[in-house]
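Anyone opening a protein record will find just a pair of labelled lines. A complete record is shown below as an example.
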Amino acid sequence: PSLVGSEMCIRDRNNASLNEICKIYGFPGKLDMDGGKVWETFLNGDLASIRNYCETDVANTYLVYLRYLLAKNELTTSAYKNEIDNFRNVISNYKKSHWSNFLKAWA
């Protein structure tokens, strides 16, 4: 899919959130937490959940960046697919549950 015309205007805005862009491209997006819950989670002392959220947020950002490079023709389709496959392989070796959830959401 492409981000042109009305697809860029999500919920009467002229921009889209990372989560919305991820969903358009079939990436996992936000899973169990979003930025609005970080402060409350911090106050509850659950730093592990914040770390997990930040790690998957970085992963989503990387995936969107790869898609951006593809759209700008700075990556060939083959190079894009290779990067996606390599990234999937790397995170599939991580043993924490948030990575398993990330991969399931990316199916």
About this structure: The chain is about 60% helix and 0% strand. The CA atoms of residues 11 and 20 lie 10 Å apart. Helices lie at 18-25, 38-43, 47-71, 77-92, 97-105. Confidence is low (pLDDT under 50) at residues 4-9.
